[in-house]
Amino acid sequence: MIKYLLPAIFLAFCLQPATAEEPSVPAFRIAIEVTVPDEDLRKRVEMYLRNELRGLGDVEITDTNPDFKLFAMVTEIKTGGGGHIAYVLGTTITSFFPDGYVDSIISSRLRNIEEVAQKLNALAVYENQFISVAGATEADLIKTVSNSVANIDAHILQARRINE
Predict the structure, then answer these.
(1) What HEC string does the chain produce?
(2) What is the pLDDT of residue 11?
(3) Residue 87: strand pairing partners
(4) How far apart are CA 131 and CA 98, in angstroms?
(5) Has this prediction a pTM greater than 0.85?
(6) How far out from the chain centre does Cα 80 lie?
(7) Of residues 95 and 141, which shows the higher confidence score?
């Protein structure tokens, strides 16, 4: 009897409906803008950035209501003879006014535009800027993009994760 009962229990366990996990809401919504004279290179750098940011696990890439905007500029460094020797990647990440920030200024009954400007100037918009030099190969550029995203994660996103 036990030899029939164990397979039946195993089969019943295997046939249990799988419970779908709720998809997690990303902690950060980031828009990306890449500036590079070469359109093909621009698309590749944007793809590298998207992949690295998504790899963090709690980032959604979107232009709709982002928390941050990541600006990346790539310059190709060439020798006097026109040979390619390196890439320079510059990234700047900006944040947007937190929800309700402007309303809090208006509702605080400020007396003049100078007081409004003073409050707005106190809000950091540019979080960080990073400049990296990569070697001449595409693999060097990919590694530099990866390192840049790691810097953004360590210096900006991680602090927000801890505070929330």
Answers:
(1) CHHHHHHHHHHHHHCCCCCCCCCCCCCEEEEEEEECCCHHHHHHHHHHHHHHHHCCCCEEECCCCCCEEEEEEEEEEECCCCCEEEEEEEEEEEECCCCCHHHHHHHCCCCCHHHHHHHHHCCCCEEEEEEEEECCCHHHHHHHHHHHHHHHHHHHHHHHHHHC
(2) 47
(3) 76, 134
(4) 27
(5) no
(6) 36
(7) 141
